[in-house]
Amino acid sequence: MTDVLDDLLPPTDPAELPAVFEAAFNSGELASVDRLFAPGAVFVTRPGEAVTEDARRAANAQFLGLGVPIALTLRHTYVCDDIALLIGDFVISGTGPDGSPVHQEGSATDVARRGPDGRWRYVIDNPSGIDRG
Fold this sequence. Notes:
Blueprint: H1 4-7, H2 17-27, H3 30-34, E1 37-46, E2 49-52, H4 53-64, E3 70-80, E4 83-95, E5 101-114, E6 120-125
Parallel strand pairs: 1-6
Antiparallel strand pairs: 1-2, 3-4, 4-5, 5-6
């Protein structure tokens, strides 16, 4: 039996990172999501506020705790050497574990870096994109 974590390795093509993130998020496994981030990566919790390490993991766990799948649509990928800018849209919509409706959406601006293993990981995850907050 294959562990879900084995199927969700960081991709070798930066344009595939959002799709792998979507699959990891929808698996509900924080470890699957976490392996898609480079050490020291930043998660922008809202415009002007960013967290790293344990606080980043906690922020991702909070999103997973919504209990609703995410859908991601990549609009643009710009690559320069080992750095990529990913621009895309996300929707988290459905019914939460407590029966209440959940709906969040936005346009993310994310930065990824290719590691020494040739795999791309997020270094900046900014789901709020250019929102003014």
